[in-house]
Amino acid sequence: MHAQKADFSKFGKTFQEKLCELMLKDRPFCDQIMEVLDIDFLELRHLRVFVRKVVEYKSKYKIHPSRDAMVSILRAELDEEDGATQKTTRDFFVRVMSSDENPEDEEYIKHTALDFCRKQKLKEAMIKSARLIQNASFDEISSIVNDALKLGADNNFGYDYIEDFEERFKVKTRDPISTGWPHVDEICRGGLGKSELGVVIAPTGSGKSMALVHLGVQALLQGRTVVHYTLELASTTIAVRYDSCITHIPLSETTKFKEDIYERIKDIKGKLIIKEYPTKSASPKTIRNHLEKLHQRNIKPSMIIVDYGDLLKPAVILKERRHDLETIYEDLRAIAQEHGCPLWTASQTNRSGLNAEVVTMEAISEAFNKCFVADFIFTISRTIDDKRTDTGRLFVAKNRNGPDGIVYPITMRTSNVHIEVHRPLDEAPATTRISAKDYKEELAQKYKKYTKKGAQNG
To answer: What is the CATH number assigned to the segment(s) 182-457?
Structure first.
C-alpha cells in the first residue's frame, strides 16, 4: 500500500495561489517558508514554475525579487516550459500584481502552510531517526529531530537594509480619511491616515464627543466602515447625533422628522457600528475582542472612534493614574496599527483649560505623556461667550504630517452637531510654522482674556 502523496491539494487552488502571492509580496515570510517548503507540495504546474523562479532569484542574487525583476524573468526565462504553462504563469503574475494589498486571510494561509510544511519536515526527520535508532547515538538522533523542529520558525529579525532594499522604494499609501475641514486637511495631508492615532482635547462640555461624531460622519459619507465606541453616552444617543450631523435637523427635532431622517440616511454607502460600554468597564483588550468578533462577521473597520480614551480601564492597574493613561493610549495606537486604520479618541483638560482662550497640550488632564504616541492632536476651546455665539477656537497642537501651532476660529452649533473650521486667526497661510517660544509669546499678547494662571502656562 503506497503512502498518500503529501501536497496542498486538500487546501484547494485558491489557497495555493494566495500562498504563492504572499511568497512574492512578503519577503520575511518567503524566507521562513523556504526552509520547509517542497515545491512539489504545490499541485499546479504554473505555481511550481512561479515559486521556483522566485527561489532561484533569491539563491543567486541574495535579495528578494522586485516586481520589475519578476517581469523580466517571466518574459525571458520560461522557454523551457510549454506554451500553456508560460501563459498561465504570466497571467497569474498579472493577477497578483493587480492589487497592492495582501490577501485578506493572509494570517490563516501563512499559519496553515507553515504548519503543514513543518510537519512534513518533522515526519521526514522521525523516519530517518527510526532507521538510525539501532546504530546511531542518542545525541545524533536528537540533533536530527531538533534541527527539523527549528526549520520554518520565525526568522524575521527586522528590516534588512540590503535584502529589503526594494521595500523602501515602494509607494506607501496613507489612505487618509478627511476631517471634513479643508483647512485642517490641508496641513495633515488629507486627514488621518492608516494606523494613525488622533486625539481631540477639550474641557468638559466643550464638544469632544460632538467633534468625534463629526469625524465619524465624514468617514461614513465617504463610504467607509466606522466603529464607534461610547463609554459615556448611550448608543442611541450617539446614533441620534449622527442623524443630526448628517441631516442638519436639530437634536431636539429628530423625533418629529423620523421618516425624513431615514429617507436621507438609507442610501449612505458607509456602515456604522456603535458599541456602548459602561464607563470604566471596558479596556483596550475589550475593544480588541469586539473588533475580532466583527472581523468574524466580515466587518472590517475603516475608522475606529473611542469616546473617550480616558474612560477606558487599563489592562493592568498601576500605582499612578497617569501611568494607567499612558498605557491606555499606547494600546489604542497599537489597535490602530493592528487594524491598519485611523483611530480617533478624546481627552479632557485639567482646570487650566476651562477658562483658556486657546487650550494647549499643557492643559491635558493627568498624563501629558499620552500625547507622545498620537500623530495628530487638536484642541477645542469655548468660553461662555463662545457658547452663546456658537463660536470657538481649534488649535492644532501636534501634527506629524505637517505644520502645527495654528489656531483656527470655528463655528460650533451643538444643537445639530455642526462644526465648521475657518481660516487661521492671523490670516497667514496654513503652511506657516513658528517656534514654540515665539508662539507662546504671540498667544500671550493676542488673547487678553487669559487667566493669570493660563498666561503663565501659555
So the answer is: 3.40.50.300
